[in-house]
Design a protein that fits this description.
Length: 308
């Protein structure tokens, strides 16, 4: 289990560096916004190009996809209903809350965890591609619409995701993966170098926001943070397990793969989206913190129960 714990420890260390430089006033809260903007517009699209280009796209069509999709849909819908009806959250805030409840850290954490717990990083591919090709573009389209303050036309809804840098990076990576094309080294090398900024940049920005932003929970309504955390850590892996085992009849290693990938914590880029669109930033920040901590025992327990 040391490799799993090491992955979490590495992430915590980089977040800690961000908090330390903020504490000693090397940077201010604006640095968090700047780092997130660089990650959103520059580094993350570059990372998506190289990550997806190296992924076996056929993995996304496996039987695991249905269970993975169910695990995402149920907690996202549950939050959307409660957030809208109970706390009267605005549409953009509902989107961020739903993402915080269901969008897993399949990249910088999911890949090493899958490699250790499952024996191959390829097991995280269905989750990774489902999120990057379906969930994220749809969420960004809704966030763009919410920020514009008006009901968009059908053409705008269909076109807007393809003007988003993250969606563009995803589609370029998918094109390379499907066709088998390889970028020439003079083109690939700077893309890889810029993409390497994405994860540490997001983590540093997150650490700065933790130190200088509102305290845990901030002004969130009572129970909202507990809801997103519970949906992510408990409901999502349970739903994925129920569909995989009960509906699809998966067993053994295939079943473990679905549950472990669904039990990963909320992805760091949800905080980037929340900051970029100024929607539910405290909810995104704190859900990431609690699920990153809480997912460790959940993943270890799933590995013990289903991996025997």
């Amino acid at each position: 289990m040391l490799d799993v714990l090491s992955g979490f420890a590495t992430i915590a260390a980089v977040i800690g560096v961000g908090a330390i430089v903020a504490h000693f006033k090397v940077v201010d809260l604006e640095a968090s916004v700047l780092l997130n903007r660089v990650a959103f517009f520059v580094a993350s699209p570059a990372l998506l190009v190289t990550t997806i280009a190296a992924t076996d796209v056929s993995q996304v069509l496996s039987a695991n996809l249905l269970a993975t999709a169910a695990g995402v849909a149920v907690p996202a819908i549950m939050y959307a209903v409660v957030g809208r009806r109970v706390w009267r959250r605005r549409p953009g805030e509902v989107v961020i809350g739903s993402l915080a409840s269901s969008y897993v850290n399949a990249g910088n954490l999911g890949i090493p965890v899958a490699a250790y717990a499952l024996g191959s990083a390829s097991f995280v591919a269905p989750t990774l591609l489902l999120q990057l090709l379906v969930l994220q573009p749809a969420a960004l389209a809704l966030l763009d619409s919410d920020r514009s303050g008006r009901r968009p036309r059908v053409g705008e809804v269909l076109r807007r995701p393809f003007t988003n840098p993250l969606t563009i990076g995803t589609l370029v990576g998918l094109l390379l993966a499907v066709t088998g094309w390889r970028l020439p080294t003079p083109v690939l090398a700077p893309i890889e170098l810029i993409g390497a900024m994405a994860v540490p940049g997001m983590l540093l920005a997150y650490g700065i926001a933790l130190r200088l932003g509102p305290g845990l929970g901030g002004d969130l309504p009572a129970g909202e943070l507990a809801l997103t955390t519970g949906l992510k850590l408990v409901v999502q892996p349970l739903v994925a397990w129920a569909v995989a085992a009960g509906l699809l009849g998966l067993q053994g290693h295939a079943l473990l793969a679905v549950v472990v990938c669904s039990a990963l914590p909320t992805a760091q880029n949800i905080f980037v989206h929340a900051t970029r669109y100024d929607r539910a930033t405290t909810l995104a920040r704190d859900t990431i913190l609690l699920t990153t901590t809480g997912s460790v025992p959940v993943i270890l327990l799933a590995t013990y129960l289903l991996g025997r």
